[in-house]
Write a structure and sequence with these properties.
This protein is mainly alpha-helical and 137 residues long. The protein is built from 6 helices and 4 strands. α2 runs antiparallel to α6. The radius of gyration is 18 Å and the shape is globular. About 12% of the residues have low confidence.
């Protein structure tokens, strides 16, 4: 019984260590989006990312919408959804959990780009967006 408990404990430690080593980061996500876009990561633009965040676009019902509409003009501050639910800060400097899980990042880009832009964001736009948020304080 003791050997079995020790084996299970070691297996969990190995899984946890492997998961930590494989964690995504803003830099790794930017590199992936740059690769997908076929551009060097150095060509990602924080300025274009800020413009994407702040620019208002015509929403589904004709009302102007932007990322800043829910996430506030300062992405280091918490925001609110349209129904009033709290949104944790978007900037990694204020919320280190942001951009650490590629699946979550893709889920939210897909959903929010459709809501704001009425289309999916390109890989270049996603890389620019993360480049800007990585600098936001």
């Amino acid at each position: 019984m003791t050997k079995r408990v020790a084996f299970i404990g070691l297996a969990w430690l190995a899984l946890a260590a492997g998961a930590a080593a494989a964690a995504d980061s803003p830099a790794s996500l930017m590199a992936g989006y740059a690769h997908e876009a076929g551009v060097p990561v150095t060509s990602l633009s924080a300025q274009r990312g800020a413009a994407l965040y702040r620019t208002e676009h015509p929403g589904r019902n004709g009302q102007a919408v932007s990322c800043a509409g829910c996430h506030t003009s300062n992405p280091a501050q918490p925001g609110r959804t349209r129904v009033g639910k709290r949104i944790e800060p978007l900037a990694p400097a204020a919320n280190p959990q942001r951009f650490t899980d590629a699946a979550k990042v893709e889920k939210w880009f897909r959903r929010n780009c459709q809501d704001v832009l009425q289309r999916e964001c390109s890989a270049q736009e996603k890389g620019d967006f993360i480049a800007w948020l990585s600098q936001a304080r």
